[in-house]
Structures
1.
Amino acid sequence: MILPIYAFGQPVLREPALEVEGDSPELQTLIDDMIETMHEAHGAGLAAPQIGKSLRLFVADLTSYAEDLADEDGVVPEYATKPLVFINPEIVLDEESPEVDVEEGCLSIPELRETVWRPDALKVRFLDRHFQAQEMVADGPLSRVIQHEGDHLDGVLYLDHLSPLRRRLLKRRLNAIARGDIEADYPLSFVRS
Ligand code: ZN
């Protein structure tokens, strides 16, 4: 089922999310719905607060980067071949790795894209959708998506990484999004809807 994505201005996007306590049929349905919703909106990631659930859970899909991520023999890393599920992730940034600037967008903030600086590399521990403990070292687009979605679980948006001046310049457009004064080709939920 495709779920409406909570737009900028919705309080849940600013709340630290709660640990996922355990598996349930409802959780598995929620994960399937989040993957379907991410695909419908052509996003590379979607965090549970973005569909109004304050849970430490996000999904990601790097398949659109598969060609770029392939090695010289054309072999695509496994993580870029299918949707990924991260439950209760613990992200440790590699502060030694160089910061890189990448243009980011967010399904909760339609139409806007801004350059965000973040460290390139990280390590993440998490549970997959079968509640198996996993550990991953990431850089490039995977690291970027994990950092962006991980921020959502702490009530942080990529806007918070921009300069105060840049944020001031975006204020009117952000207010318009919060009012629902925006077009998107996927369903959105606004504060007053
Ligand atoms: Zn986002």
2.
Amino acid sequence: MINMIKGDITTLKVDAIVNAANNSLLGGDGVDGAIHRAAGPGLVEECRKLGGCPTGEARITKGYRLPAEWIIHTIGPIWLGGSNEEDRLLSMCYKSCFELVEQNGITSVAFPSISTGAYGFPIERAGRIAFKEMCNFKSNHESIEVIAVCFNDHVYDCYRKVMKETR
Ligand code: AR6
């Protein structure tokens, strides 16, 4: 089962939270800005050493001042109308994050709704992709907790609808 909660991902006491970052990995607005603010300056220092990240891939850093031990930074696609590999790239984000979850022995991971803010991906379509990938992973990793974090009512309502469909 995928857990779904409404709230601010930076407050969660889990092994890892996922950041919806940009290719520079050096911070931005939205959830990225919130994570950098809460983690403190150690985070951008470590990120600088990573030298960026291509869309669809993921990188891991420490959590610094966050309650979470790790931050998995992934780069979602910018929505360009839907025929520019957006679906495939968004699926790749989730897969890339789960690879790092496995490699680092992470037992709980929380995801924001990648690409659905500044990057403009339609929320229901993104939610279907998110739940498909989360359910795929859960079917082989029952003991790992996977949390979908909804920052506002709109995301929450869309995710609930999608979750019902996929049940
Ligand atoms: N906790 C959980 N979810 C959040 C939080 C939070 N504290 N803050 C926002 N969200 P966005 P993107 C939700 O724009 O679309 C940045 O500038 C928000 O409601 O953060 O992938 C990066 O540097 C939305 O549903 O990420 C990139 O340049 C979701 O997080 C760009 O934005 C994603 O919105 C990435 O855009």
